[in-house]
Design goal:
Structural class: alpha+beta
Number of helices: 2
Order of helices and strands: HEEEHEE
Distance between the termini: 39 Å
CATH architecture: 3-Layer(aba) Sandwich
CATH class: Alpha Beta
Strand content: 25-35%
Number of strands: 5
Helix content: 25-40%
Shape: globular
CATH topology: Trna Endonuclease, Chain: A, domain 1
């Protein structure tokens, strides 16, 4: 398979994973505020709201059920936190909500796994990247 074909396949898998993650979150009572939101710092896969919480969700779609789900890397966390800050600045109606960073892991033939409050941007592990 060529590099371009592999990239397209990965993009389709990622889009499918985001749909599955959004469906799971909606079943759990979340309202999807935005999908694939791009800022100057990067892209946020899903932004979801439930009650007084605004969750910025990174979706990891695995190629197989046996694949290992690596957590989001520290640099990605910093970019996501910056993008989330930009997004909230653009949406003053959401500024009063508590922010949270979640992951949803999607693998074939498995129910998506939602990890609420998976990480925090003020973690000491990320301080050297800010």
């Amino acid at each position: 398979m060529s590099g371009a074909a592999a990239r397209r396949r990965a993009e389709r898998r990622g889009a499918w994973g985001e749909i599955a993650a959004a469906a799971l979150l909606m079943l759990k009572g979340y309202q999807i505020v935005a999908r694939r939101r791009r800022t100057g710092f990067g892209e946020i896969d899903l932004i979801a709201r439930r009650g007084g919480v605004l969750a910025f969700v990174e979706v990891k779609t695995l190629a197989s059920a046996a694949a290992r789900a690596d957590p989001v890397r520290p640099r990605q966390m910093v970019r996501t936190a910056r993008a989330a800050s930009v997004f909230r600045g653009q949406r003053p109606d959401l500024a009063r909500l508590d922010m949270r960073y979640d992951w949803v892991i999607v693998a074939p033939w498995r129910w998506p796994a939602h990890h609420a409050d998976a990480w925090r941007p003020d973690s000491p592990d990320l301080a050297h990247l800010n």
